[in-house]
Amino acid sequence: MSRICCALITFAAAGCAGPQTPPAHGPVAAEVLARSSAADWRDLDPERTLVFDSAAGRVVIELAPRFAPVHVANIVALATAGFWDGAAVVRVQDNYVVQWGDPTEKKDLGAIVRDPPAEYYAAAQGAPFTPLDDGDVYAARAGWTDGMPAARDATQTQSWMVHCYGVVGVGRDMPPNTGTGAELYAVIGHAPRHLDRNLALVGRVIAGLEQWAALPRGTGPMGFYEATAPKTPIARARMASALPEAERPKIQLLRTDTATWAAWVHARKHRREPFFVEAAGRVDVCNVPIPTRPKPQGP
Fold first, then answer.
1. Are 235 and 55 contacting, i.e. CB atoms less than 8 angstroms apart?
2. Single pTM value for the model
3. Cα–Cα dist 97/90, whole Å
């Protein structure tokens, strides 16, 4: 950005561009995180953390068995068997998704459920849920369950994950029960919420997605790479629990059931950083990223 542009932005943010809406009370987002305590953060569970190592870098996925238990069990079995070793990124569609799997479509799937149910809904009863008070265009309620962006119906009986940036889903053919989990995709663009409840969502990328999102776009239909196009190979995919301790991701995530989380959401609604002339005063579930940080080293 040019110095002139930066100066104009600073000028406008300082109030020289006209009347401004008074900022809401409360700390800015960075202050919320700075004031957080150790109890506000949670460690990754290695039993539901999937790690992909590729030529473009490491991608870490937190799985969501509550929403798609059969598909997640398939994914764990595939990772344990080394199914994705030697697989590749097969599709990068601009402002949409990156997709990966076996480009030959000939690898043995092993002992998994070949015809899983269409796990597009989960029972809401008994599941933790931190609602977002601003409402949602695509559902009666939106919020977070188990650290995943989620939605609920008006009767509060059904729950489902939603397609926010970084959310991971299962590729399938036309019939709803044809996706096993062997081919996965992650959202890398504006949240395609119209896909909610039409595909099984199995987790969320918590680190490294920018490396795959920056790959060249596929030139085939829907962003698939042509047969002869170079593809980014996947060297290894393993559950974190199967990796030596030194190789496991050392990441913590902000819990979504704390007062600090409520302050974080408030700060995202009422942007008080110097750049902002006016704060929106409301926020969408997909515009509240879940903060991560390196796990603090013990004494």
1. yes
2. 0.90
3. 11
- What angle (nearest 5°) sits at the alpha carbon of residue 125, between those of residues 195 and 199? 15
Q: What is the 3-state secondary structure (H, E, C) of 187-214?
A: ECCCCCHHHCCCCCEEEEEEECHHHHHC
What confidence tens digit (pLDDT) does each residue in 56-108 have? 999 999 999 999 999 999 999 999 999 999 999 999 999 999 999 999 889 99
- Strands 49-54 and 234-239 turn out to be antiparallel
10 Å CB burial of residue 103 (0-12, 13-18, 19+) is: middle
Residue 2 and residue 8: Cα distance in Å, rounded?
Answer: 10
Q: Of 260, 270, 269, give the one whose Cα is nearest residue 291.
A: 260
Using 50, 70 and 90 to split pLDDT, how confident is the model at 299?
A: low
Which domains can be identified in the chain, with CATH numbers?
Answer: 4-39+264-292 (no CATH), 45-250 (2.40.100.10)
Compute how many other C-beta atoms are within 10 angstroms of the C-beta atom of residue 226. 11
The two structure tokens encoding residue 73: 């069990």
